């Protein structure tokens, strides 16, 4: 498993998923003979190589195994452990629906499996779970965009049902199916991915022992792109996050943290005030911690911190105008959604709250390192390489992005997945990504005490005068 995680990371994967009971292979007789010895907890020493591979490769992993219960002597579960790119446990899911043969060995779970990674909300299911329509229905109701199933199906007709699941529920679906012979017989392989339309966009070969193919490479790694499932800044879920302003001040980064390089600030629109050098105090502390965690020879280079609301609106409308010119058939909502890949809607902008920072890496001598694109490269001009987990990056750029991400994530910041350089703490997107009940920072101005705020953004409430979001106003810049 550790070797596959490393290989997948080298090929540009951000998430690796394993099949049902992959840790022991799907052998119920083996597990029934020694449930105490073969069942594991997420922190089991035998899974240490997996956790370390995740940390080293900067890749998350979904591992299915016989899971040890909380009570001594309790029956094991068919458990899924999700480890993040830092090797820490993101969630555990226990299979809810057991086949008859499984129920003699395992106990069913009760919780729904959910986790967020790279701005994408994932749902977990295990094999027989997917035969129950309420499982994907609940995933959609919970805001999940991607449905992951670890399975041990024996025939291509069972695999084909995932196309119907994707189409019926509007989900991206990733199936990881077992191969070779388990206690119920052979599994057919054919792991792959489906778009919400039901179109299959990724596939592994069939395992020939199951009689479904003529390839002998049933373990082929398959990459499936689900970047379209990223929750963007324009998503109503972001605007709906309430803000409870903590009152933390904006501080001048250059004076408060001289250990950080901050000589590359952009100055457009600040009237020479140096407002771009400001960040919330808590963000500055976390940047200092992140810099201490970087590998030797690397430093953070801050490019932009605080952004005045008027300038944020100008950026957003200007980029929206460019998209309208390039795509005259797009309606205003599609333009707004696409624009938010690169510029946040001004009414919820993390930069205007002082919680977001654009930055990159340099050497200790101040030389910029290869990050794959310049800071502020749009999706159009970079061909999508601005996405944090973009495939086809040069090895050096991928390694540098991983080093940056590991340091910043370890310090408590979250990334906006369409921009490798944008990280934040305390804002609405941070709250949504981390599961916090509310954001800590609302709009702020340097030199002024931050005002308290308790509700969702005006766009989410939809009742306040003058609250129409940019790109929806009549006469917006075109």
From TrEMBL:
Species: Streptomyces albospinus
Recorded family membership: Belongs to the peptidase M15D family.
Co-factor: note: Binds 1 zinc ion per subunit.
Catalytic activity: D-alanyl-D-alanine + H2O = 2 D-alanine
Role, per record: Catalyzes hydrolysis of the D-alanyl-D-alanine dipeptide.
Active-site residue list: 419
Cofactor(s) needed for function: Zn(2+)
Keyword Metal-binding listed: yes
Keyword Nucleus: no
Stated name of the protein: D-alanyl-D-alanine dipeptidase
Domain CN hydrolase: 1-228
Enzyme class: hydrolase
Region named Disordered: 441-478
The entry's keywords: Cell wall biogenesis/degradation, Dipeptidase, Hydrolase, Metal-binding, Metalloprotease, Protease, Zinc
């Amino acid at each position: 498993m550790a070797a596959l995680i490393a290989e997948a990371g080298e090929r540009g994967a951000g998430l690796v998923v394993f099949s049902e009971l992959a840790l022991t292979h799907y052998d119920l007789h083996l597990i029934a003979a020694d449930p105490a010895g073969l069942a594991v907890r997420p922190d089991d020493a035998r899974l240490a190589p997996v956790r370390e591979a995740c940390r080293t490769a900067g890749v998350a992993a979904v591992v299915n195994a016989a899971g040890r219960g909380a009570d001594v002597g309790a029956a094991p579960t068919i458990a899924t452990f999700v480890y993040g790119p830092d090797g820490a446990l993101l969630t555990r899911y226990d299979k809810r629906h057991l086949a008859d043969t499984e129920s003699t060995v395992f106990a069913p779970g009760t919780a729904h499996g959910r986790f967020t990674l790279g701005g994408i909300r994932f749902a977990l299911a295990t094999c027989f779970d997917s035969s129950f329509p309420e499982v994907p229905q609940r995933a959609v109701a919970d805001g999940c965009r991607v449905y992951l199933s670890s399975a041990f199906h024996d025939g291509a007709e069972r695999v084909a049902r995932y196309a119907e699941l994707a189409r019926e529920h509007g989900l991206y679906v990733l199936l990881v199916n077992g191969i070779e012979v388990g206690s119920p017989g052979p599994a057919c392989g054919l792991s792959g991915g489906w778009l919400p339309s039901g179109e299959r966009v990724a596939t592994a070969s069939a395992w020939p022992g199951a009689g479904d193919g003529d390839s002998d490479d049933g373990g082929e790694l398959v990459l499936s792109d689900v970047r379209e499932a990223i929750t963007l800044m324009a998503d109503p879920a972001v605007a709906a996050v309430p803000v409870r302003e903590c009152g933390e001040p904006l501080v001048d980064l250059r004076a408060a943290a001289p250990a950080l390089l901050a000589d590359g600030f952009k100055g457009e629109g600040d009237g020479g005030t140096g407002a771009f050098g400001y960040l919330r105090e808590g963000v500055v502390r976390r940047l200092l911690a992140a810099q201490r965690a970087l590998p030797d020879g690397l430093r953070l280079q801050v490019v932009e911190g605080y952004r005045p609301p008027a300038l944020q609106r100008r950026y957003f409308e200007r980029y929206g105008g460019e998209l309208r010119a390039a795509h005259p058939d797009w309606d205003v909502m599609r333009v707004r959604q696409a624009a938010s890949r690169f510029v946040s809607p001004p009414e919820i902008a993390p930069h205007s709250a002082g919680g977001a920072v654009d930055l990159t890496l340099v050497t200790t001598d101040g030389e910029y390192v290869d990050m794959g694109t310049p800071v502020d490269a749009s999706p159009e001009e970079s061909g999508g390489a601005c996405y944090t987990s973009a495939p086809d990056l040069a090895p050096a750029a991928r390694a540098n992005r991983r080093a940056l991400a590991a340091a910043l994530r370890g310090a408590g910041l979250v990334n906006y997945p369409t921009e490798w350089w944008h990280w934040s703490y305390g804002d609405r997107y941070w709250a949504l990504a981390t599961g916090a009940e509310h954001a800590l920072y609302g709009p702020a101005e340097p030199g002024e005490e931050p005002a308290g705020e308790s509700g969702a953004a005006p766009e989410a409430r939809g009742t306040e005068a003058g609250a129409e979001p940019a790109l929806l106003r009549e006469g917006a810049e075109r």
